[in-house]
Amino acid sequence: MNNQLNSVLIVAATAMEIEPFRAVLVQDFEQVSADIFKQDQLRVQVLVTGIGMLLTSVRMMQVLEHKHFDLVINAGVAGAFNRSLELGEVVEVERERFGDLGVQERDGSFVDVFEMGLFPKNELPFRQGELINTSNPLSLSLKKVKGLTVNKVHGEEQSIRRIEKKYQADIESMEGVGFFYVCLLKKIPCVQIRSISNYVEPRNRANWKMKLAIDNLNHALLNIFKIYDIFK
């Protein structure tokens, strides 16, 4: 794997989500700049984009305009609609779609831009309104899930039930579509991993397991590098 992966970009919405991983880079790699690390022929860059699909896509485009990467990894936490997923469990997101780009009707129902005919369902890189990642070069032993990307996380019972019924997504995040859109559009191999910090339910931060989610996320991220011998 080392011969194939000489440059890897790690994308996260916030610094805290990947701080343990970055600490390993600081300890074991040569630090070229604030966010670039080298070990022999391998270059790893960390990109903290800020929260949301807009910041994610814009910041990624700024970096990818001038640099080549063999692999881009998005690592972050997520809320789970699917109760078979455990808090702290790390999953691989295989497909994403917009969760709130459209209009709310008078009865409270939601109609997305694809259903409205405002955006073609199959305009590249979309397939029937979804972004499907077929470029991941890593065979990860993580549960594969379907993601929903939102600008406003769901925290009210009725809206949660409606969006669950409409899209039947497994998890919810604020960056997944932005990440996949850029990578698929530019045809860059990519993978998105998420750790479950909470269930999507009437908002109650007391039920969240953020530390567990971040610890497990970084453990999984380090394992990817170890298993595939990206780290020497």
Structure description:
- With 232 residues, the chain is α/β, with parallel strands linked by helices.
- The protein has one domain: 3-Layer(aba) Sandwich (Rossmann fold), CATH 3.40.50.
- Helices cover 27% and strands 28% of the residues.
- Strand 3 and strand 4 form a beta hairpin.
- Helix 2 packs parallel to helix 4.
- The longest helix has 18 residues.
Characteristics of this structure?
alpha/beta; single chain; 5 helices; 5-stranded mixed β-barrel; two-stranded antiparallel ribbon; 232 residues; Rossmann fold; globular
Amount of helix: 25-40%
Helix-strand makeup class: alpha/beta
Main sheet overview: 5 strands, mixed, barrel
Separation of the first and last Cα atoms: 11 Å
Provide the residue-averaged pLDDT: 93
Please report the total strand number as a whole number.
12
Text of the CATH class: Alpha Beta
Spatial shape: globular
Provide the low-confidence segments as ranges: none
**Helices and strands, in N-to-C order?**
EHEEEHEEEEEEHEHEH
Count of discrete domains: 1
